[in-house]
């Protein structure tokens, strides 16, 4: 049977359409490429940023910053950092009296989610009045699917989703949605740091943590265990790192000196000051391909979103269990300086989950060290990974210096 003439033209049309699609994808990815940031040292990796529309009708889009691995990016796995504040770039510094070079060893996509956080936005302002975990997870999944269309060569890469603090909600819920929706995404694992997994356990562990670090008195601890609030912990101790130096902004520092460091002075962490100042520079926003839509300036915490606070009490610890059963790797790591979502709560919850799932301990609880200088970095066992003071303090110092260098 002779082929019909129309089938020939149909094949040509399909080929042309495919070529146009590939060209469009290439042009979009090239348009989102970043040449350099103001103040950024010369780097050897490719970096991109821009927006992915998660709801065309409502004009809602999530902002992303994407960095390829410095070495052999064609073979590296993909990491999705949810609710990323900023991403440290390759820099040189001298934290331990020796110059260390830190460079990226995997492909990282950082997104600001939900819309209304950072540079992410919704042109329809009514979206901000009813934001919740379910909508956030759905938007994040749409983002991933569309991002893979824009960067198709990464579609089959192993994907690891990461985050910290409230990402203890975002990350497991997104992973669960990927598994349940049977999306064609090669999800291999998740990693969450100092995560919110179960409200009562996490927040009720704060008093014991603060007391164990000598930051409150015995009498105050006794009151706290009875549910009575106290403001005994000094304002000059950072909640997210109780042993890190607290930094006053220049204006507050002068005021504090004049007032002999009175407790009523408001304390700002320097890294946050530097980040806010940097990301509100017009030249930085232009380099980022970012826009301020519906807000006057970039802020670390959104003041336009009315998030459903009842979501705080939705436990995700059992979502981790379901993910483990489905073959997804789970890493929970906690620094020993965070008093907001402390190590003690994470440890209790993960240990309980391990017993419930009847997991066998494959690696006994033990110290582990940085290979370069044998510095004690922490302790680890099974699915739990605890950062102890030496490494956590080093990481915080590196983070601080990176932001100041920018």
Walk me through this protein's architecture.
The protein is α/β, with parallel strands linked by helices. The chain folds into three domains: 1-32; 35-201 and 269-384, Alpha/Beta hydrolase fold, catalytic domain (Rossmann fold); 211-256, no CATH class. It has twelve helices and 14 strands. It has helices at residues 5-31, 133-150, 167-181, 199-204, 206-212, 218-225, 250-258, 270-279, 282-288, 317-325, 343-357, 389-405, and strands at 33-34, 47-55, 60-67, 78-82, 91-93, 100-102, 107-112, 121-122, 159-164, 187-193, 329-335, 366-369, 376-381, 384-387. The strands form two sheets. Strands 1, 2, 3, 4, 7, 8, 9, 10, 11, 12, 13 and 14 form a twelve-stranded mixed sheet that branches. Strands 5-6 form a two-stranded antiparallel sheet. Helix 2 packs across helix 3 (167-181). The chain starts with a helix and ends with a helix. Residues 16-25, 85-103, 250-269 and 383-406 have low confidence and may be disordered. It comes from Trema orientale (Charcoal tree). This is Serine carboxypeptidase-like.
Oligomer: single chain
**Element-level helix/strand string:** HEEEEEEEEHEHEHHHHHHHEHEEEH
Number of helices: 12
The top-level CATH class of the largest domain is Alpha Beta
- How large is the share of residues in beta strands? 15-25%
User: What is the H level of CATH, i.e. the homologous superfamily of the largest domain?
Assistant: Alpha/Beta hydrolase fold, catalytic domain
The CATH architecture category of the largest domain equals 3-Layer(aba) Sandwich
Let me know the number of strands: 14
Structural domains: how many: 3
The overall pLDDT, averaged over residues, is 76
């Amino acid at each position: 049977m002779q082929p019909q003439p129309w089938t020939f033209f149909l094949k040509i049309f399909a080929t042309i359409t495919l070529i146009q699609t590939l060209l469009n994808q290439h042009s979009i990815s090239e348009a989102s490429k970043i040449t350099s940031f103001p103040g950024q040292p010369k780097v050897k990796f490719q970096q991109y940023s821009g927006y992915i529309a998660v709801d065309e009708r409502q004009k809602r889009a999530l902002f992303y910053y994407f960095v390829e691995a410095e070495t052999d990016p064609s073979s590296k796995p993909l990491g999705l950092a949810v609710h990323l504040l900023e991403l440290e770039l390759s820099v040189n510094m001298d934290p331990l009296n020796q110059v260390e070079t830190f460079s990226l060893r995997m492909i990282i996509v950082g997104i600001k989610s939900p819309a209304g956080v950072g540079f992410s936005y919704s042109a329809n302002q009514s979206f901000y009045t009813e934001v919740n975990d379910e909508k956030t997870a759905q938007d994040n999944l749409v983002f991933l699917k569309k991002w893979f269309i824009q960067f198709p060569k990464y579609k089959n890469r192993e994907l690891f989703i990461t985050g910290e603090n409230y990402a203890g909600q975002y990350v497991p819920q997104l992973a669960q949605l990927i598994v349940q929706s049977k999306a064609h995404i090669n999800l291999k694992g998740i990693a969450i740091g100092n995560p919110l997994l179960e409200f009562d356990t996490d927040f009720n562990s704060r008093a014991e943590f603060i007391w164990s670090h000598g930051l409150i008195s015995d009498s105050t601890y006794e009151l706290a265990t009875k549910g009575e609030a106290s403001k005994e912990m000094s304002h000059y101790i950072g909640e997210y790192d109780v042993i890190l130096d607290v930094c006053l902004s220049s204006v507050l520092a002068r005021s504090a000196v004049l007032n002999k460091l009175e407790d009523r002075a408001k304390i700002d962490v320097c890294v946050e000051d530097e980040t806010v100042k940097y990301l509100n520079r017009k030249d930085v926003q232009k380099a980022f391909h970012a826009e301020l839509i519906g807000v006057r300036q970039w802020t670390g915490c959104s003041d336009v979103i009315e998030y459903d606070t009842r979501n705080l009490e939705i436990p995700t610890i059992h979502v981790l269990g379901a993910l483990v059963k489905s073959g997804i790797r789970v890493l929970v790591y906690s620094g020993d300086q965070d008093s907001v979502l402390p190590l003690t709560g994470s440890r209790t919850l993960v240990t309980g989950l391990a017993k419930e799932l009847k997991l066998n301990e494959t690696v006994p609880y033990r110290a582990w060290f940085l290979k370069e200088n044998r510095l004690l970095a922490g302790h680890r066992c099974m699915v739990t990974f605890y950062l102890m003071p030496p490494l956590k303090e080093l990481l915080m110092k590196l983070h601080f210096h990176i932001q100041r260098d920018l």
